Amino acid sequence: MSTGRLAGKVAIVTGSATGIGAATAIELAREGADVVINYSRSQAEAEATRDACAALGVRTLLVQGDCSDEAQVKHLVAETVNVLGGVDILVNNAGRTRFVPLADVDDITDADWNDILNLNVKGAFYAARAVVAPMRARGGGLIVNVASISGLTGGGSSIPYAVSKGALITLTKSLAKGLAPDIRVNAVAPGIVTTRWVAGREDHVERYGKETPMGRAAGPEDVAGVIVGYATHATFLTGDITVVDGGREMR
After folding, report:
1. Is the dihedral of CA 93, 17, 130, 158 positive or negative?
2. Would 148 be classed as within a structural domain?
3. Region 218-246 average pLDDT
4. Of 35, 116, 206, 243, which has fewest CB within 10 angstroms of its CB?
5. What strands, in cross-sheet order, belong to the sheet with 10-13?
6. Using the 8-state DSSP alphabet, how is residue 212 labeled?
7. Beta carbons of 20 and 224 less than 8 angstroms apart
8. What is the domain extent for residue 240?
9. Is the pLDDT of residue 251 over 80?
């Protein structure tokens, strides 16, 4: 049997094959939670994350699914309840972008808008909606949305991405109001994080780090620590948005 501050809890982490999602799943497992690993295409990486969690002595479940499709989201949650007995924690990490300079407005297509908003915003809502009933059946729960500093500053990889993360921040606050007091809803807003999303942009990441008071860009584990903290000890927070950027955008 697992031990830790989250022993007996069941957590779903969407988009958890790599990066922030994988780091969060592993940290949740380290705290004793049983973990559901969700992925869309990266099966080998998802299996590696699953194995890392299982090695920590918790129960795991691997579920493929595109979180922009509500039917697949419902399947993800139903499988979790059927196999692990319920849901206590949801981390909405699945997301996508397309790199388009902000000034290149003519290069942004309707497909870009639809693909990005459907996953980053609607997908998060679908997952949140799907876990409400099973969370309440267990007395309540926690939802954490992985937003971005782009949602606060308007910068980032593209206009649709920044807009989607701004919408996700607003969704967080709306859900926090609507689902209180038994379900808490919070978000993290990372700056640049050293994941495969920034592969090939190492010079930019290095410059970014030098402009950051902490002297580096965040690693996935830096963001995961904040996400898991909402579950382990920051339990009077809801509607909270924590910026995880090493102080770069401090105001």
Report:
1. positive
2. yes
3. 97
4. 206
5. 60-64, 34-39, 10-13, 89-92, 141-146, 183-190, 241-244
6. S
7. yes
8. 10-244
9. no
pLDDT at 158 over 90: yes
3's tokens: 């031990």
Encoded tokens for 23: 């780091």
Distance CA 133, CA 57 (A): 28
| Average per-residue pLDDT for the chain | 95
Q: Where are the beta strands (DSSP E) in the chain?
A: 10-13, 34-39, 60-64, 89-92, 141-146, 183-190, 241-244
Per-residue pLDDT tens over the stretch 7-30: 999 999 999 999 999 999 999 999
Helix, strand, coil percentages for the chain (3-state, nearest 5) = 50, 15, 35
The answer to whether residue 208 is catalytic is no
- CA Rg value for the chain: 17
What is residue 92's three-state secondary structure?
Answer: strand
**In a domain? residue 2:** no
What is the number of structural domains in the chain?
A: 1
- Give the closest residue to 141 by CA, choosing from 123, 129, 149, 154: 129
Which CATH number characterizes residue 187's domain?
Answer: 3.40.50.720
Q: Higher pLDDT residue, 216 or 20?
A: 20
Residue 251 forms part of a structural domain: no
Long-range CB contact pairs, 133-137, < 8 A, 24+: 134/77, 134/80, 134/81, 134/86, 134/87, 135/86, 135/87, 135/88, 135/90, 135/182, 135/183, 136/182, 136/183, 137/86
Of the residues 39, 126, 161, 208, which is catalytic? 161
- Is the pLDDT assigned to residue 221 strictly greater than 70? yes
**Tokens standing for 201?**
């942009």
